[in-house]
Amino acid sequence: MATTYNNLYLDLRARFKNAGVFDPTRAARELTCAASGKTPEELIRDGRLYAPPETERALSELADRHLAGEPVAYLIGEWEFYGLPLDISRSVLIPRPDTEILAARAIEAAQSYDEPRVLDLCAGSGCIGLAIAKHVPHARVLLGELDEEAIKVCRQNIRRNDLAARVSAVRVDALDKPSRQLGEFDVIASNPPYIPTADIDTLDVSVRNYEPHRALDGGEDGLEFYRAVCEKWRDALRPYGKLLFEVGIGQADAVLRLMRRNGFGDVQVIQDGSGIPRVVYGTLWDEV
């Protein structure tokens, strides 16, 4: 039986809500737009029109895949972060609202310099560095990432947000000492892999089965990347430069100690909206 776009959306929202899907309203809207090829505004405009059978079939397939655990962002190939539209693939983590806390603090840090050089290390989709570039017009930003497919996503997002004049992407390994050719930075922001290896199999199916394990696995204790960055990348910071990390639950104190041990002072911890310590940041003193 023929049905309208609005009814397709409402029926899907109810189905998702009954299944316990997180944010069923957004999930239903995004997937209905993807299946119909319409923007949210066009979906509202055409809500009373009848949807063709192929749209119904496409939406049913997307809904089934989402209910099986596949995240909406991977199904539609894009997501929003800090007001920026981003291309997303299964080569990169899906940007989370918690990471906007790190982006906001990094933007604030970059704004304290006249012409800051900023590094987004373990960049993934490039979301943090691109948010900094968008909100700090005098910043020059480097997206540092190891995975070649993720670098392709970074470059797509640089172009999509018209930031090619001030942002570039380069292949680097955060576990290795950086090349001097990278130069020095005023701000390094990083959301590194921080899940302990043994915990990955316990993650929700939407993460465990779909998001890249390379971007999740932080080694035996989850702190491998924090140690490497604090020890090996401090020389890539100018004196009194800022280092900012996103951290996992229960990791803030350990990361704070690592930073202090490696010459960072004024180290502070910022909580997320749930009261969980989520960002640790500090300033590189001139001497250790």
Description:
By secondary structure, this protein is an alpha/beta fold. It has 2 domains: 64 residues; 194 residues, Rossmann fold (3-Layer(aba) Sandwich), CATH 3.40.50. The protein has 11 helices and 9 strands. Strands 5-4-3-6-7-9-8 form a 7-stranded mixed beta sheet, with helices on both faces. A hairpin with a 5-residue loop joins strand 8 and strand 9. Helix 1 runs antiparallel to helix 2, helix 2 crosses helix 4 and helix 6 packs across helix 7. The protein is elongated.
CATH secondary-structure class of the largest domain = Alpha Beta
In CATH terms, what is the fold-level topology of the largest domain?
Rossmann fold
The first-to-last residue Cα distance is: 72 Å
Which architecture of the largest domain does the CATH hierarchy give at level 2?
3-Layer(aba) Sandwich
- Percent helix, as a range, is 25-40%
Poorly predicted residue ranges: none
Q: How big a fraction of the residues is strand? A: 15-25%
Per CATH, the superfamily of the largest domain is Vaccinia Virus protein VP39
Tell me the number of structural domains: 2
Give the strand order of the largest sheet, numbering strands 1, 2, ... along the chain: 5-4-3-6-7-9-8
Q: Mind telling me the C-alpha Rg? A: 21 Å
Using DSSP, what is the number of strands? 9
List the total number of helices.
Answer: 11
Overall 3D shape: elongated
Order of helices and strands: HHHHHEEHEHEHEEHHEHEE
Helix/strand-derived category reads alpha/beta
| Major beta-sheet overview | 7 strands, mixed
